[in-house]
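Bench log, entry 3. Co-assembly request; chain sequences pasted below exactly as received.
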Amino acid sequence: MVFHLRSILLTSGCCRHMLHSGFNGAARVRKSLVLAACGLFLLWNWDIGSAEMPAAGIVKSVKGEVVIFRSGQSLEAGEGMRIFMGDRVQTAETGSVGLIFSDDSLVSMGPASEMVVSEYHFVPIENKLSFVIRVFRGTIAYLSGQISKLSPESVRLETPVMTIGVRGTHVLVKQEG
Amino acid sequence: MRPTLASFILKAGVLLLAACGPGNLVVLIPDPDGAVGGVRVSNSAGSVEITAPHHAAVVKDETTAPSALADLSAEEVAKLFSEALAIRPMPPVHFLLYFELDSIELKPDSLNQIPDVMAAIRDRASRHISIVGHTDTLGEKIDNLDLSQRRALAVRDLLIRNGIPDRFIDTTSHGEKNLLIKTGDNVAEPRNRRVEVVVR
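Structure output for the full assembly:
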């Protein structure tokens, strides 16, 4: 559906004109963003040392009971804990949690919420950029970071009933469980 | 904007949703700095674009197209998302501090930024402070690696003197490997003589 809509947009003359006229400025902005993001990426990877898979983010704030499911294990979330691609994060009825990702994205979850970091790639130097969060239930606040600036089409929030393409920047999602 | 009958009906619908509980909802709100982005909400039955602050989309189920809603009040948003918003961390902040040539002495403007760095740490109750030292390409690579490390340590010491515990600070150094401004070898470039501080 999304692809279908995009192809309609691209074939309309008006949008083609917009794309052309805005191209140079956008390319410049994009170039400087790539440079800034490369620095951020290097910085983050140095931070975490040479782990096999780079951490996607950290747990910044926790209230109540919050559990992270990772490779068949369940871990109680604590401040400073690292978050990796594939992690499933679950808050209890009285729990909530705030995460900071390495591209500066912020994700926070209210009570009785559950999500998976299904895709996270922040390697600007290789143009490897994507961020997909699958929301199963509850309330989620998402504030986009560098990935969405560099590659807006690679950022999605998915729920059982919808896909949210995030062009930026600050989005709230409520999904019934 | 004059409220129309349609927006009243939409608002009533939202209030009803909020009151009854059920409903899958997407709301676009302004960034902390006031800018507003945009989202496209789609499923197998259709899609809708939201580009205005506090506008929302409601999705009944996978086989019902998302429907757009007029603006929600700040109170309604706060009510539905209070806990997720209350725990949301403050955005990380990046500082670039610049140094004198071949020196670990901060330029005056950068020294004057230290109070801002301290304020950012305090505001976030941050325990995650990254400090990365860099140099320009003037001189030998090995000396520059050493210089970038001493620059990073100089900034770390400044923060420690201001009361930040050592264990909250992560210090690394890149020498001349990660230039902010790309140059050839042996080029003096003041903007590359820097330490980046990220406060999370």
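Chain A touches chain B through 55 residues (CB under 8 Å). Residues 90 and 103 of chain A are 22 Å apart (CA to CA).
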